[in-house]
């Protein structure tokens, strides 16, 4: 928000300045808006190159190190190292082992003791953790999920790409509104603005959280459990599936918008030629 808001404001003001500076005709504004939207759409496709690996959770997305699973299809978190620990499957208090793998709880890591308090808590003698130095059973684990290096490396690239897309979209935003004002009869301008706002809410603002949320939920690998027994929030997502579903849906919707922009430009150029 701190980065995108000033960039968006700058793009909108610059778009208006260009219209006034070069005294663009409505046909030229239509071409300008269409080109900026298509360029932003092509840049948006580069989001697919931003990769972030799935969180490595023992028994869920990664195997227990060199250990035989004692699991059923409904319970893949049990192994020979934690079979006698009576771990609860509905708990989620992740720890990061020395091997870089996250465990649902310290119990599933087979840890026997702990030191420290709060965020600084360290668990010791973890029978399921195969450390890089000590080997199996003599390793420790830290409270919290393990960090993913690829996510940290990809974030600046993602932020720069998002900034460029936001600026280009904002640049064409002002010409789009000016097209509406100049192509509609003076007595229908307020009505046109109302229809445009209504269309955005009905087609985008209201239903989008529903179908986006439904698709995102399909990529969840581990659901939390509420105290009353119902399903809670998602603990671990399949990151690659999440990316493909989320960005794929956006790309599909914007492809339709690009087609409409091209049709709009052709109609305006024919009408105001």
Low-confidence stretches: 68-75
List the helices and strands in order.
HHEEEEEHHHEEH
Helix content: 40-55%
Termini Cα gap: 41 Å
Average pLDDT across residues? 89
What class would the helix/strand composition place it in?
A: alpha+beta
Rounded to an integer in angstroms, the radius of gyration calculated over CA atoms is 26 Å
Judging from the principal axes of the Cα atoms, what is the shape?
elongated
Beta-strand portion reads 5-15%
**Strands across the major sheet, in which order?**
2-1-5-4-3
The biggest beta sheet reads:
5 strands, antiparallel
Descriptive account of the structure:
Helices cover 49% and strands 11% of the residues. The chain has 273 residues and is an alpha+beta fold. The strands form 2 sheets. It has a 5-stranded antiparallel β-sheet with strand order 2-1-5-4-3, with no helix packed on it. It has a two-stranded antiparallel ribbon with strand order 6-7. A hairpin with a 4-residue loop joins β1 (95-97) and β2 (102-103). α1 packs parallel to α3 (149-183), α2 runs antiparallel to α3 and α2 (26-44) runs antiparallel to α6 (239-271). The model is unreliable at 68-75 (pLDDT under 50).
């Amino acid at each position: 928000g701190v980065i995108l808001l000033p960039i968006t404001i700058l793009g909108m003001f610059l778009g208006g300045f260009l219209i006034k500076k070069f005294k663009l005709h409505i046909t030229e504004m239509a071409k300008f808006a269409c080109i900026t939207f298509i360029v932003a759409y092509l840049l948006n496709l580069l989001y697919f190159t931003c990769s972030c690996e799935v969180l490595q959770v023992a028994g869920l997305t990664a195997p227990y190190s060199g250990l035989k699973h004692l699991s059923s299809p409904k319970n893949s978190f049990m192994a020979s190292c934690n079979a006698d620990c009576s771990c609860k499957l509905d708990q989620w208090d992740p720890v990061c082992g020395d091997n870089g793998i996250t465990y649902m709880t310290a119990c599933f890591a087979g840890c026997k003791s702990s030191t420290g308090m709060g965020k600084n808590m360290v668990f010791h003698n973890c029978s399921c953790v195969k450390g890089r130095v000590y080997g199996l059973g003599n390793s420790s684990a830290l409270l919290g999920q393990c960090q993913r290096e690829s996510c940290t490396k990809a974030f600046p690239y993602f932020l720069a790409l998002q900034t460029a897309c936001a600026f280009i979209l904002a640049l064409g935003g002002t010409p789009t509104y000016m097209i509406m004002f100049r192509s509609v009869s003076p007595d229908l301008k307020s009505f046109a603005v109302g229809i445009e706002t209504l269309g955005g809410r009905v087609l985008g603002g209201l239903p989008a959280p529903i179908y986006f949320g439904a698709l995102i939920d399909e990529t969840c690998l581990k659901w939390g459990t509420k105290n009353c027994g119902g399903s809670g929030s998602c603990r671990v997502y399949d990151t690659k599936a999440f990316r493909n579903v989320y960005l794929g849906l956006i790309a599909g919707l914007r492809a339709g918008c690009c087609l409409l922009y091209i049709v709009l430009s052709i109609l305006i150029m024919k009408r105001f030629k």
